[in-house]
Amino acid sequence: MLSPLNFLPTSRRVAVIGAGAGGLVTARELGREGHQVVVFERNTRIGGTWVYSSEIESDPLGVDPNRTRIHSSLYKSLRTNLPRELMGVRDYPFVPREGEDRDPRRFPSHREVLKYLEDFANEFGICKLVRFGTEVVFAGLEEVGKWRVEFRCENGDVDEDLFDALVVCVGNYSQPRVAEIPGIDGWPGEQLHSHNYRDPEPFRGKVVVLIGYSSSGTDICQELIGVAKEIHIAWRSAKTELLDTESINSNVSFHPMIESVHKDGAVVFQDGCTVSADVILHCTGYKYHFPFLETNGIVTVDNNRVGPLYKHVFPPALAPGLSFVGLPFKVVPFPLFELQSNWIAGVLSNRIALPSKEEMLADVKAFYKDLEALGKPKHRTHDLGDCLPAYFDWLAAVCGCPAYEEWRKEMYIATHMNKVANLKSYRDDWHDNELIRQAYEEFRKYAT
Ligand code: FAD
Question: Is 74 in the pocket of ligand 1 (CB under 6 A)?
């Protein structure tokens, strides 16, 4: 941080792209720091991922570049996979609210999260900063220190505006990544990506091969158990001993990855097991995708590594004018957005100093080297995994915010352990009551 003596606060005109949770929190942090903020949002309402749509894309696999697009990847019955105490923005806790249409559960439905985000936006007056129905189609450096944003309005007109800085908050769960399967072109079955899964009914009586068994895969599998005839899970790290065996029914089998598929409908797994399947459901995650962003090749997406980025946020050569909020995964998203955007806001106002471009680049190179030494593939560059608490603590320290509370770290681990041990009922049955008590004790600070 800069000392108060040499801190000359600067107010900048900042474009935020996206009014999901990331954009809303970023707009608040930038506004609090004295910046002038314009949020571009192509939807007609705030909430991003949390705006559920029962519609699916015209290509259910999500690979046709000309498909009709749906932003949200939520399925109908989705409940959060993190407890509300962890999910909320730190100084605006996600506590149960009274009201007929509110869901007070600890792991509430997606509708309740959207309501929380609407409450947040109302509380901090964010909606007036948002230009709804404007899709950013181009964003690039116009001249030193100026970013040109071109946006398509609802009537089809394209307009443009100039900004001192650009914060990209477009979310990371809309561009499906699918598994490559030898023989798939001739396979007669149906394929879809979890992005386009809404409810289990279309899979009634079918033999389903599910690729991937992470957050979406586990939830979808639970839904399909009572409906599909058979579920075959192709899972790269098929550690079945980690699973709660009682949660897995007899119509579920685990396999290593698919070796090949055939014209007669056969799906052959690497263990030699063959099944005749109706559907392949790719629960294989998403790709970072910034089709509007022009950086003359300075920032690239290479095998799902967005880089080079200092601490997942600033490209050294374009900092602080360009930044990204929310790239890391396996995180607690809303508090992450809060810390990252507080850092961005502070850097843009000169409250917080960035290292030199050379130092940032050296840091990025050292980080990539560490990943390599750990054997972590490129596509997991932004997977924070066990480094989450250290990353939060680093951001909090650089921003001058309180450290990430111990109860949060412990609750995150406790939730994960409970989920692994108790896949079917971890959302309704838990053992971390003392941590919940500590959470609510802290929330009293923010009670209005
Ligand atoms: P988004 O919510 O995706 O918002 C991005 C916004 O940018 C959208 O409104 C979009 O319309 C807009 N946009 C995109 N491109 C443009 C453009 N060119 N011009 C203008 N606007 C644009 N997190 C949790 O904390 N708890 C959970 O339980 C949880 N469960 C999840 C379950 C699923 C199935 C998924 C997919 C995610 C889940 N998440 C969960 C993570 C969730 O994505 C984050 O919580 C968070 O909502 C992401 O916010 P975001 O602002 O980064 O992105």
Answer: yes
